[in-house]
TrEMBL record:
SUPFAM superfamilies: EAL domain-like, Nucleotide cyclase, PYP-like sensor domain (PAS domain)
UniProt domain CHASE: residue ranges: 130-260
The protein, known as: EAL domain-containing protein
Pfam families, A to Z: CHASE, EAL, GGDEF
Residue ranges of the TM segments: 23-43, 298-317
Sequence ranges assigned to domain GGDEF in this UniProt record: 482-615
Cellular location(s): Membrane
Domain EAL: 626-879
Length: 879
């Protein structure tokens, strides 16, 4: 009988031996597939472990390079500190140099690897410039560099010349230092160089710098010590570290350290540039860096699962034919899925989605989309109904894509920005949207960061002046402009912290105060740093002036209560605050002018207080009249109507220097003939730049009439002359004093120049130079009003003084205030230790005289001893 094919059924007969596949074959196949999938997953997990380990290895290398960079920058700060010593003095003595080095010893960070700090002075000889080493510290161990000529060391000289021409720190090539003796190392150290120019303006051109060079400061460092301190003793991922100098082309090994056997992976190299030299940090990973990982666990678990899968397959393969048919259908579905996967490029790194147009159903998401996006994607968040999608649908060219930026929800619930392209396509006759997106969150964050930096202060993270003014202008232009207030804050004596502890301390104080003030404001209030130590606060919705003053008082109290610590010192701070209602100003310029005037009056009233602007405020009116006072002072200078009074200082101790000591006090004769005290006109003179003229008039008048100031005439022992802050910036005043002393044959020891503590600290470097030059003439210098600001006894140590005058506020409260007694006693004791004479001001009673004498104060000055009198040569019948 012919063989017939039954086409009625496509299901194979499971009982037919020729068609049935043995169950063990299916089980083996399942096992192999499971093992294959396990190996694939384990490989992926191992690659992930390798990436993580590689990241840790490179991060550790970058950290070492950063540590080296930090060490070098600390070395630069050290040598710049010593450069400032030479800038502050025309002639630095060996004792001053040793004291400066001793002060540096308190900072251990800048002493790593330091061998010596040396100063080489330029000497011009017929064969060229020579630079013998004159000063160096420490002395022990560095005797070999005494008198060493830098010109004999080519690498050292090359760094000196580069620093001379650039006025920047320059690093020498590595070479054997003379302190190393006859050791085997050929390059065990290097030297950092900074120039020292002649006094005056810092030269700006190369030729000018070469002409102005008087010497060079060099700091020598041991390479092993400096670099060894930057490298951890037992790193986690590093097998070895090598540091090479690449500056001259051929790599030159500076330092190397081996920790463990290296892995067979490329080295990681990080470059460090400093002082004109280029270094490279090269590191290899440890051999066991990839020993730990989860891929072995994946293999073990995958093997167990594969065995279970094989057992299950064995069981299923031996069931009825229906299971076989079901398996065949599943296999066909898998094949179809794999085909679709290949067609749609499953591994595309972008997010790819197919969305039906008729019902909005998402019919496909590629692997990246499934990983990044949430399981249930809100279609409302997609721009399918927006014009961009409509443009794509209406495009005459098939597959044309329209782009836009949208926010998508990630699998963890967070939102991220994506650049999205949408195209209208058709698959198997079904209209669909093809959506392709790529994550651009980083680019948007960068844009937002740039916007933030444009509107915020980088130090305090508050709004900057530009953004603050924009917000004030917006509120002034709104209908609610009458419901608001502006606060203007200026920190009191902030410059003293910069001068005593450095600008880093000042910056940290500003940042901490910004955070403290922010806590005292409402969410709607706007706090901004306007510049320096000035802050502004915009208070919207404030109707009553009393509410604005209360807000200002909260800020004042929180600033006053804040205690700032820095390097073992603590500081208190305060602020003067001006308050003005927005309705009191017709423009933003007027608003800021009123606020600044109110803040100024708060400072004038004693600081650490609040002043509210009012149109009928007498103080504001007085402030506005300062311009008129400035004109009156100019007229008095022109008409010779300035007057001098003197007040005597009396000795309290038997060993005090004898003779009459006086202090000159300035007065002004008004147009009506009356005498005007300095408190009425000096503020205007200071504000409008008239103090240099006034100071010169006082100095010229006093020195030319020195023997006609007091009834004792030529027997007058000493005359004290006050110098204002403007004297520090008057470059010609010193020459004027020197000429007058010579012209009028005045003994310099008979003249004392007084500079207030706050003026001296306003520009410490300029004050130090002026004081040193005045004492060089033979004159004496007194520090007046000591203790008026945030005082530090370090001033007495760092300034070359002869006299310290205790601020009268402490003397006035001496009888009933134990703190004032302690301060006066401490100033006296420390002043005597420095070899200074101590003077107490504002002595108003015999009781105070007795207390001051018991405290060993040298001199007293005040109404209890002598009321000011007109100088003799200006007296007439009415004086």
């Amino acid at each position: 009988m012919p063989f017939a094919i039954d086409n009625t059924s496509t299901v194979p007969d499971p009982t037919s031996p020729s068609r049935r596949v043995p169950a063990w074959a299916w089980a083996l196949l399942a096992f192999l597939l499971g093992i294959g999938l396990t190996l694939w997953l384990a490989y992926g997990e191992k690659q992930r472990d390798i990436r993580d380990a590689r990241h840790g290895f490179t991060a550790e290398t970058v950290k070492i390079a950063g540590s080296i960079q930090t060490q070098l920058e600390q070395c630069e700060r050290l040598i710049r500190a010593f450069q400032s010593v030479f800038l502050a003095s025309d002639q630095v003595t060996a004792d001053e140099y040793a004291r400066a080095y001793q002060n540096m010893q308190t900072n251990t960070e800048v002493r790593i690897g330091l061998l010596a700090l040396a100063y080489a002075q330029r000497q011009v000889k017929p064969d060229g410039d020579h630079f013998p080493t004159l000063l160096f510290a420490p002395q022990p161990g560095n005797e070999a560099i005494r008198g060493l000529d830098v010109a004999t060391q080519p690498m050292n000289l090359e760094a000196l010349l580069r620093s001379r021409d650039s006025n920047q720190v320059a690093m020498s090539a590595p070479f054997r230092l003379v302190q190393s003796g006859n050791g085997n190392k050929h390059s065990d150290g290097f030297i950092l160089r900074l120039p020292v120019y002649a006094a005056g303006q810092v030269p700006t051109s190369v030729d000018a710098r070469r002409q102005a060079l008087v010497g060079s400061i060099g700091a020598s460092f041991r390479i092993d010590d400096l670099l060894g301190a930057a490298i951890p003793r037992d790193p986690i991922a590093l097998a070895d570290v090598t540091i090479n100098d690449l500056t001259d082309g051929e790599p030159r090994t500076l330092f190397a350290r081996h920790f463990d056997a290296p892995a067979s992976l490329p080295a990681h190299v990080v470059k460090v540039q400093f002082g004109g030299r280029l270094w490279s940090v090269t590191a290899h990973a440890r051999h066991d860096i990839y020993a730990a990982g989860n891929w072995k666990t994946v293999l073990w678990v995958g093997g167990v699962i594969s065995m279970l899968l094989a057992a299950l397959t064995w069981s299923l393969a031996s069931t009825r034919e229906r299971a076989l048919v079901l398996g065949t259908a599943l296999s066909q579905r898998v094949v179809a899925s794999e085909e679709r996967f290949r067609r749609l490029n499953e591994l595309l790194p972008c997010l790819v989605l197919l969305i039906r147009k008729d019902n909005g159903a998402i019919v496909y998401r590629n692997a990246v989309a499934r990983e990044r996006l949430a399981d249930r994607l809100e279609l409302a968040g997609l721009p399918l109904s927006e014009p961009v999608a409509k443009d794509a649908a209406a495009s005459p060219v098939a597959g044309t894509m329209a782009g836009t930026d949208i926010q998508l929800q990630a699998a963890d619930g967070s939102l991220f920005w994506a650049s999205t392209w949408i195209s209208s396509i058709e698959i198997d006759g079904t209209p669909m949207w093809l959506l392709v997106a790529s994550d651009n969150t980083v680019q948007r964050q960068l844009t937002e960061k740039l916007g933030y930096q444009a509107s915020h202060d980088s130090l305090t993270r508050l709004y900057n002046r530009r953004e603050f003014e924009a917000r004030v202008q917006t509120l002034l232009a709104s209908p609610a402009r009458d419901d608001g207030a502006l606060l203007f804050l200026d920190l009191d004596q902030f410059k003293l912290i910069n001068d005593t502890s450095g600008h880093r301390a000042g910056d940290e104080l500003l940042a901490q105060l910004a955070a403290v003030m922010q806590e005292k404001l409402r969410p709607v209030d706007v706090l901004a740093r306007l510049g320096g130590d000035e802050f502004g606060v915009l208070l919207p919705g404030i109707i009553e002036l009393e509410s604005a003053v209360q807000a200002a008082e909260r800020l004042r109290r929180c600033i006053e209560a804040f205690i700032f610590g820095w390097e073992g010192r603590t500081y208190t701070s305060s602020a003067s605050i001006g308050v003005v209602m927005l309705r009191n100003a017709s423009s933003m310029q007027a608003l800021f002018t009123h606020a600044d005037a109110a803040c100024y009056l708060a400072k004038e009233a004693g600081r650490n207080r609040i002043h509210a602007y009012a149109e009928d405020d007498a103080a504001i009116t007085h402030r506005m009249s300062e311009m008129e006072w400035a004109n009156r002072v100019r007229d008095a200078l022109r008409d010779d109507r300035l007057l001098l009074d003197y007040q005597e200082l009396h000795a309290l101790q038997a060993n005090a220097i004898g003779g009459v000591h006086i202090e000159l006090l300035l007065r002004l004769r008004g147009e009506d003939g009356g005498v005007v005290l300095p408190g009425a006109f000096l503020p205007a003179a200071e504000r409008y730049g008239l103090m240099p003229q006034i100071d010169r008039w006082v100095v010229e008048t006093a020195l030319s009439q020195l023997d006609r100031l007091h009834p004792d005439g030529a027997d007058l022992a000493n005359c004290a002359i006050n110098l204002s802050a403007a004297s520090l910036e008057d470059e010609g005043l010193f020459d004027c004093i020197a000429e007058l002393l010579t012209e009028h044959r005045v003994t310099p020891q008979r003249v004392t120049f007084e500079i207030t503590e706050t003026v001296a600290m306003r520009d410490f470097a300029a004050s130090s130079v002026l004081i040193s030059r005045l004492r060089g003439l033979g004159c004496k210098v007194a520090l007046d009003d000591f203790g008026a600001g945030m005082s530090s006894f370090g001033y007495l140590k760092n300034l070359e003084l002869d006299v310290v005058k205790i601020d009268g506020s402490f003397v006035q409260n001496l009888a009933g205030d134990a703190m004032s007694q302690s301060i006066v006693r401490a100033v006296t004791e420390i002043g005597h230790l420095q070899g200074l004479q101590v003077v107490a001001e504002w002595v108003s009673s015999p009781q105070l005289l007795a207390m001051l004498a018991a405290m060993q104060v040298d001199y007293a000055q005040g109404f209890a001893l002598h009321h000011p009198q007109r100088v003799c040569f200006q007296r007439n019948g009415n004086d």
